[in-house]
Structure formats: C-alpha cells, structure tokens
TrEMBL record:
Keywords: Lipid biosynthesis, Lipid metabolism, Membrane, Phospholipid biosynthesis, Phospholipid metabolism, Transferase, Transmembrane, Transmembrane helix. InterPro entries: CDP-alcohol_PTase-I, CDP-OH_P_trans, CDP-OH_PTrfase_TM_dom, CDP_ALCOHOL_P_TRANSF_CS. It is found in: Membrane. This is CDP-diacylglycerol-serine o-phosphatidyltransferase. It is a multi-pass membrane protein. Belongs to the CDP-alcohol phosphatidyltransferase class-I family. One of its GO terms (biological process) is phospholipid biosynthetic process. One of its GO terms (molecular function) is phosphotransferase activity, for other substituted phosphate groups. The gene is pssA. The chain crosses the membrane at residues 56-75, 87-103, 192-215, 221-239. One of its GO terms (cellular component) is membrane.
Length: 247
C-alpha cells in the first residue's frame, strides 16, 4: 500500500477531530498556522467564555466585592500612613457594598436570571465585604491585641459558615414557592452596623488608644472589650434557632 493511502485516513481523522471541536473549515488550516487570526479568536472565545456568561446581576455582585476589597486596602493604608481619611473612606465603601448587594438580588429577579454561579458569586462577595472588611477595619481602629485577633477571626469564620449553610439549605427551605421565607441566623450584611459604629468612633477620634471601653491586659495579650460586639454578631449569624423573616 502506498504512502498516499496511509496519509488519507490520517487526514480524515484530523478533519473529524477538528469538526468535533466546533472549528470551521477555515480554521482547519490554522492547525498548521497557529498565528491565524481566526484561530486565535476561537481560542479566546473559549478562554473568556465565563465573562460572557455573566448576567447583569453578577456585575452588581462584583461591584460589591470591589467595594469590600477597597475597604480592606483602605484599612491597610491607614495602618501605614495613619491618615484618618483613608479609614473613613474604607468605612464608606461598606454601605456602598450593601447597596450593590441589595441590587443584585432585585436585578436577578427582575430579569429572571438567577443561577448557581450567581449565588456562589454573591456569597464570596459577601464574605469579603461583610466579613473580612469589617474585621480589617476593626483591627485598624485599634483592636490589635492577641485576644482581639482571635475574636475577629472567629467573626470571619462565622460569616463564612453562615453563608455556606445558606447555600446548602436555601433550596430545601424555599419549597414550591422558590423563595426563601426566612433567614437562619442574622444575615452577614448586618455587620454593616458594626462598621457604622466604628465610623462614629473614628469620626470623633476615639480609635487606637482612645477606643471606646478601653483595653485590658489578660495574660500575655491585650483585649479591647469593644471587640465583643464582633463576637456577638458572629454568634448570631450561626444561630440555628434565630429565624428572621426575609422581606
């Protein structure tokens, strides 16, 4: 059998393989010439398909995460330069994150475009904006003792656990109405109240050594009693018996 007869089945196999990948006849030539513009466009289309799959509500969720991340950076900048304006800016971003968090749900229901991706994205954004960011702002305000670290870390872990539980149980609680009638434990955005309290303290200069309720020396570490509000907030988030109607 000639070499040409061997080449034919190989070519047929190659064409079939390209067809299975969804490539056009024009892009078959690109198998030999990867620099072909059409081939690059096809590859980019596959690589960036996630961004095209985002719904309008998902962009509001990302704006929520953007604000929370900005608040964390503002707290870090305050610790570096001790400019109170940076701290107040970080605190102002949390209410803005709350607005975006509220809007993404309304937009999803309006467009009837809710998805599993959107729900997971919302939870991750909430962890940043209403879990990590308030803890970082509390630390920047003066809760920097060893016991404070433990309480702030407990608060963040409670927020993570609360959102994980919600994602798992939401479908069971929703029932036939396809709507969650109540929250088990306080929603994590309620940490906005802590941020507002810290913003009041920061605006009148009661941060650092003059933080409300002072500080105690407990063993090797310092403890600021004000951090107990974070402990209470975290505990309410993970409460199993506390049920709050969802509006």
């Amino acid at each position: 059998m000639s070499s040409r007869s061997h080449a034919r089945p190989e070519a047929v196999t190659r064409i079939a393989s390209l067809a299975e990948c969804g490539e056009t006849v024009a892009c078959m030539a690109c198998a030999r010439y990867p620099s072909c513009l059409a081939h690059l466009r096809l590859r980019m289309k596959r690589h960036f398909s996630m961004l095209r799959d985002f719904q309008l509500a998902d962009w509001f969720t990302l704006a929520n995460a953007f604000c929370g991340t900005g608040a964390v950076f503002a707290a870090m900048r305050f610790l570096q330069e001790e400019h109170r304006g940076d701290l107040l800016l970080g605190m102002a971003l949390i209410p803005l994150a709350f607005v975006f968090d509220a809007l993404d749900g309304h937009v999803a229901r309006w467009r009837k475009a809710s998805s599993t991706l959107g729900r997971e994205l919302d939870s991750l954004a909430d962890v940043i904006s209403f879990g990590v960011a308030p803890a970082a702002l509390g630390y920047a305000c003066g809760m920097r003792g060893g016991w404070d670290w433990l309480v702030l870390s407990y608060f963040v872990c409670c927020g993570v656990s609360r959102l994980a539980r919600y994602n798992v149980t939401a479908e069971e609680i929703a029932g036939e109405a396809d709507k969650v009638p109540y929250f088990e434990g306080t929603p994590i955005p309620t940490s906005l109240l802590l941020v507002i309290l810290l913003a009041v303290a920061a605006s009148i200069g009661h941060i650092g050594e003059t933080l409300w309720w002072g500080q105690w020396q407990l063993g090797p570490w310092q403890f600021h009693p004000l951090v107990l509000l974070f402990a209470v907030s975290g505990s309410l988030m993970i409460s199993k018996t506390l049920r709050i109607p969802k509006l």
